[in-house]
């Protein structure tokens, strides 16, 4: 009789450019873990949702970065939401919802103190919120938008803010926070439906960068020139934004998704304009703000409760097997708002 198993996905091969289906990652069966395998102060968690993030492609490169690369044979790194199924910790009960850096796995053991690198945290669902907000508006996504726009971008009332990747998880938060701060906002996204949604969110205007007239439309819509450019995509859109920047404009360098799958990433050709226009271009990593997360989460949760922040999720079902394809499609813009993979339906659970 075959032994019960659970699945995980490991890195099999480092891609040189885009992720190669069936080659980059391998699905692996593992002997099942039970309560008997837990040590004191450990919990056993089954994964319900995985967060899919553009940064994942960078974690596959053997390069110096803000986190070490995922090793060959190691479970693919990811944040998740899960449910405690067994516990030897007085701080967690069976049925508790948690977030953790579990990776792409159906089942995992984590230390209750969060100090084993998995950062196990019990979930509290705020007013007007749902559990998956912990990976979106109240997670790294919302925090990135918050600190990037407010601390790096120093947005203020009356600023003209342009956001690339605007209908994605981070971008859609940036647009709304900029509006809350009294800015005028132009969002850039990759489809007409996304443009429509951005206008519903309160953007003053939005453009589809795949339209044939995009470059001339962008010039027309940025006649007053840009105060703050929040960049999620890099590449040609960044180059265009530089050409329309005000003197001393602030460029928040959050991400460059257009370059992540390229074997030869490139920068803007008009880079010397950074000098002549006296631009301040500043990269940041949200982890640098960890000491201020609680205060920011409080404000984000407050805006959510008051209906001042809207969010969308694109949830891909199909279990752990769906993660690889979903990640590939993230770079093709499959998502509006936050992209999640449903690893296991939470039957009988609370609002997830
Ligand atoms: N610095 C930090 O600490 C930090 C933290 C989190 C995230 N980030 C960065 O923030 C950015 C957004 O992350 P996210 O998690 O919110 O992802 P996301 O925006 O929800 O998803 C990525 C989106 O990028 C767009 N995109 C893909 N290829 C593109 C291209 N070639 N040109 C223009 N747009 C393209 C797609 O939308 P379209 O349909 O519009 O193309 C896609 O939906 C990423 O660059 C990520 O690396 C940085």
List keywords for this structure.
globular, seven-stranded mixed β-sheet, 2 domains, 10 helices, 15 strands, 352 residues, six-stranded parallel β-sheet, Quinone Oxidoreductase, Chain A, domain 1, Rossmann fold, binds NADP nicotinamide-adenine-dinucleotide phosphate, alpha/beta
Structural class comes to alpha/beta
Mean pLDDT: 96
> DSSP strand (E) fraction?
15-25%
| H/E element order | EEEHEEEEHEHEHEHEHEHHEHEHE
Task: Please give the domain count.
Answer: 2
**Gross geometry:** globular
Radius of gyration: 21 Å
**CATH H-level superfamily title of the largest domain:** Medium-chain alcohol dehydrogenases, catalytic domain
List the ions, cofactors and other small molecules found in this model.
Answer: NADP nicotinamide-adenine-dinucleotide phosphate
In CATH terms, what is the architecture of the largest domain? Alpha-Beta Complex
Question: Treating each run of at least 4 consecutive H or I residues as one helix, how many helices?
Answer: 10
Count of individual beta strands: 15
Separation of termini? 36 Å
Q: What is the class of the largest domain in the CATH system?
A: Alpha Beta
Helix share, percent:
10-25%
CATH domain fold name of the largest domain:
Quinone Oxidoreductase, Chain A, domain 1
**Largest β sheet strand count, sense and barrel closure:** 7 strands, mixed
Quick recap:
The chain is α/β, with parallel strands linked by helices and 352 residues long. It has two domains: 5-133 and 312-342, Alpha-Beta Complex (Quinone Oxidoreductase, Chain A, domain 1), CATH 3.90.180; 140-287, 3-Layer(aba) Sandwich (Rossmann fold), CATH 3.40.50.
